[in-house]
């Protein structure tokens, strides 16, 4: 008999994600280029023109800088942090797995604030962690009540805590001062705060404002900068934490195209600011339109939000047959909800028309 994989691998199911499933579209006879994707939380206005210009200049026959120095230098200058406190990664998802690989030991208690992105749970379980998923309540519109959450941390004494802030899929956000008090209260736990969507809710502050030795902040350039096809993220934290990630990261993790795109995107903050402003306006119109159809988009600090529709899978399928994709939230433990991510106004109007037909 051949060797069997490690036991955690056999017992951890794959995580369901949004975005287009090309195999599914093929079975339905749909052209992927003609499907409008409301299931992925990215900037529909796309990257800066400077990004496309930079990509043309990238040499494809040479290995990329394994340390992504140009990108990390630009990030360090933009954030006002030392370059030794920063590491680039192949999207925030890689950095989640690096944090688990570096810090979660078999049997360690890991707490995840949910409902949320499934890769935190998967990464912790693959490393043999003992997982507790602390869920915000539907009757609170999935806004977390921090008092019972803090009591749970007091009781469980976890080694690692994962918090998505702003949260996916709920759009709930914890202010940086509130999060800071929580982090300082439990200095023996490593808090991994995923701020992939922070630029969409910058008014609430950032965990980067919290000075703590047990805090690792993950960011993404794929969401607000429109670089989802390239996969690009980074982590910021105290030098020892970042060095631990660096030791377990595979070489050449961030390809040359992603590095060049990141530098170019950071060099054009005006493009991002304009697109995020237009996106906020489009969200207001879209949520008003959904409310007019008798639906109730849940409160959200970001351009995506949950909507209770009764049967999320059936609702998604009816829209998909019309060339529109929303996110069925059964994988988040919310089978009666879908998640809708705001797109351009003309696309949002198409969605509203289709939902009117479906309802």
> Can you tell me the CATH superfamily of the largest domain?
Type I PLP-dependent aspartate aminotransferase-like (Major domain)
Task: State the domain count.
Answer: 2
Secondary structure: helix percent: 25-40%
The largest sheet, given as strand count, sense and whether it forms a barrel, is: 7 strands, mixed
Could you characterize the architecture of this molecule?
With 359 residues, the chain is of the alpha/beta class. It has two domains: 7-46 and 270-358, Aspartate Aminotransferase, domain 1 (Alpha-Beta Complex), CATH 3.90.1150.10; 49-268, 3-Layer(aba) Sandwich (Aspartate Aminotransferase, domain 2), CATH 3.40.640. Helix content is 39%, strand content 14%. It contains 13 helices and twelve strands. It has helices spanning 7-11, 22-28, 49-56, 69-79, 91-103, 119-126, 146-156, 176-185, 239-248, 256-266, 269-292, 312-320, 345-358; strands at residues 36-37, 86-89, 109-114, 130-135, 160-164, 190-194, 215-220, 233-236, 304-308, 324-325, 327-328, 337-341. The strands form three sheets. The protein has a seven-stranded mixed sheet with strand order 2-8-7-6-5-3-4, sandwiched between helices. A hairpin with an 8-residue loop joins strand 11 and strand 12. The chain starts with 6 loop residues before the first helix and ends with a helix. The mean pLDDT is 96.
What's the structural blueprint in terms of helices and strands?
Layout: H1 7-11, H2 22-28, E1 36-37, H3 49-56, H4 69-79, E2 86-89, H5 91-103, E3 109-114, H6 119-126, E4 130-135, H7 146-156, E5 160-164, H8 176-185, E6 190-194, E7 215-220, E8 233-236, H9 239-248, H10 256-266, H11 269-292, E9 304-308, H12 312-320, E10 324-325, E11 327-328, E12 337-341, H13 345-358
Parallel strand pairs: 1-10, 3-4, 3-5, 5-6, 6-7
Antiparallel strand pairs: 2-8, 7-8, 9-12, 11-12
């Amino acid at each position: 008999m051949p060797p069997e994989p490690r036991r955690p691998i056999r017992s951890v199911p794959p995580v369901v994600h949004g975005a287009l499933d090309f195999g599914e579209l093929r079975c339905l006879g749909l052209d992927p280029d003609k499907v409008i994707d409301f299931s992925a939380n990215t900037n529909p206005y796309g990257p800066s023109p400077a990004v496309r210009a930079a990509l043309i200049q990238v040499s494809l026959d040479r290995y990329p800088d394994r340390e992504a120095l140009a990108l990390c230098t630009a990030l360090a200058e933009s954030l006002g942090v030392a370059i030794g406190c920063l590491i680039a990664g192949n999207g925030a998802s890689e950095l989640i797995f690096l944090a688990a690989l570096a810090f979660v030991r078999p049997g360690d208690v890991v707490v995840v604030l949910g409902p949320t992105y499934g890769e935190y749970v998967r990464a912790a379980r693959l490393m043999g962690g003992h997982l507790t998923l602390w869920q915000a309540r539907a009757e609170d519109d999935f806004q977390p009540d921090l008092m019972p959450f803090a009591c749970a941390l007091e009781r469980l004494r976890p080694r690692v805590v994962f918090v998505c802030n702003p949260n996916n899929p709920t759009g709930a956000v914890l202010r940086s001062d509130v999060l800071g008090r929580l982090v300082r209260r439990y200095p023996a736990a490593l808090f991994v705060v995923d701020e992939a969507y922070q630029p969409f809710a910058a008014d609430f502050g950032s965990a980067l404002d919290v000075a703590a030795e047990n805090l690792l902040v993950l960011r993404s350039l794929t969401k607000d900068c429109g670089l989802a096809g390239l996969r690009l993220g980074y982590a910021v934290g105290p030098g020892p934490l970042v060095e631990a990630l660096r030791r377990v990261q595979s070489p050449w993790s961030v390809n040359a195209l992603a590095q060049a795109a990141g530098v170019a995107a950071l060099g054009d903050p005006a493009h991002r600011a304009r697109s995020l402003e237009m996106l906020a306006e489009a969200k207001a119109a879209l949520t008003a339109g959904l409310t007019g159809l008798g639906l109730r988009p849940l409160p959200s600090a970001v351009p995506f939000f949950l909507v209770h529709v009764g049967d999320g899978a059936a609702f998604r399928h009816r829209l998909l047959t019309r060339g529109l994709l929303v996110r069925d939230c059964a994988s988040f433990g919310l089978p009666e909800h879908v998640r809708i991510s705001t797109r351009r106004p003309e696309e949002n109007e198409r969605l509203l028309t289709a939902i009117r037909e479906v309802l």
